[in-house]
Design a protein that fits this description.
It is a single chain. The protein is globular, with a radius of gyration of 24 Å. The chain has an eight-stranded parallel β-barrel with strand order 1-2-3-4-5-6-7-8, surrounded by nine helices. A three-stranded antiparallel sheet has the order 9-10-11. The protein folds into three domains: 272 residues, Aldolase class I (TIM Barrel); 48 residues, no CATH class; 114 residues, Alpha-isopropylmalate synthase LeuA, regulatory domain (Double Stranded RNA Binding Domain). The two termini are 31 Å apart. Strand 1, helix 1 and strand 2 form a beta-alpha-beta unit. It has 517 residues and is α/β, with parallel strands linked by helices. Helix 1 runs parallel beside helix 2 and helix 8 packs across helix 9.
Length: 517
Amino acid sequence: MMSNPDKLIIFDTTLRDGEQSPGASMTKEEKLRIARALEKLRVDVIEAGFPIASPGDFDAVRAVARAIKESTVCGLARAAEKDIDRAGEALREANSGRIHTFIATSPIHMERKLRMTPDQVVEQAVWAVKRARNLIDNVEFSAEDAGRSDIDFLCRIFEQAIAAGATTINVPDTVGYNLPHQFGETIRTLIERIPNSDKAIFSVHCHNDLGLASANSLAAVMNGARQVECTINGLGERAGNASLEEVVMAVRTRRDIFSCDSDLDTTQIVNCSRMVSGITGFPVQPNKAIVGANAFAHEAGIHQDGVLKSRETYEIMRAEDVGWSQNRMVLGKHSGRNAFRARLLELGADFASEEELNEAFRSFKELADKKHEIFDDDLLALVNDAGFSAENERVNLVSLKVCSETGEVPKAAVVLTVDGSEKTGHAAGSGPVDAAFKAIESIVRTDSVLELYSVNAITSGTDAQGEVTVRVQKAGRIVNGQGADTDIVIASAKAYVNAFNKLMRSERRAHPQLGDV
């Protein structure tokens, strides 16, 4: 990679930094599905997680390392012995692995968080890189909060990290503080002033607190950075990370400006976006660049006339190049299992077992009886639906009956299985969904707080599936639940049950930016 200055390396951290978004936690199986989609997208590096965070995170990183053959699989580690060793163990079976170790370098972080002197930070960074190199050849070093760090100190610590064996040097704008011209100048200065800068790839990891993550990343590329760390849909902590689809398509569309390009198969971008949105429960806003529903839509008469005469009048890239299509499939209730599976494979979805395929196909047949037309988004919703995508669920929805009429208090009766035992709950509420949720809570009794309730129509028409996302919180733990159905009340109940199952099996995880090294 270092010998090819025309190559832009795409480092996807959806499974690590993206998962740190409150409520975006993923199961091992969900991480594997996304990792396979990223591999199909031809992402260069997949940061699969933070192995020391929890046993579940370790297992997920190890599973991704075993499954992925074409992309490099990366594990995050603080500059600490236990972190680095744990990451090395998780990546042991990777076809191509990388340890990504980091320590904070800004004055405020060194003084108030680490309580270390600059000399101690440099010593710890060098030690961490050397220890990681004893386990694996591919080591990335990051200076956390580099965007607010002293440039002389960055030159010093990066020079010594490269000398210690770091093959990638990452310059994060951890809190999204920089402006594009400023950040680009920082990258250019580092590359020019560090004597051994030619021995490593320079990378950037930008956050979106001021809405500038993609702009800062592109400014860095224009000034010599050759790796960008980003996420699908811009998912990430706080306001999110640089958006993979925005960075990749900006570089590819503006080849008159950029002297490099990625190797991504951009036709897979929309499929990856839908999958990540479905698994995390974070919907994509309609006007989101590249992957939003309106990204290639034209309503104004002048625009429509221009596009009809020449697409280039209002479109700077082709919708097909990022994976948009007419979103229409010909499968129906008479279609067979092989055609069903083949179409989902084209959409980037796969099944872990024949049992999961059979359950999805059964749900497809039920949906085909309800809907006249079935679209690709309907299929993806089936795959993401909690009814068969989660493993070993403790709570399952058996049936729901809701009565709602003008002038009467809505009432709900629900039947659940809890750890294999069937239980019935009844409740009244201010509306049918409220009554259904209270009936479910009367059985499960989690004492959690509902923080978000969101409804999204998957496709158009009155027979469209409704996709419901809920976010619940208990004792500081936040999880998302999702459900889809042509009946919005049933979709709501599925989402609520899905959230409870995640809450029951979620575990406390360490955070990579908390705790002493």
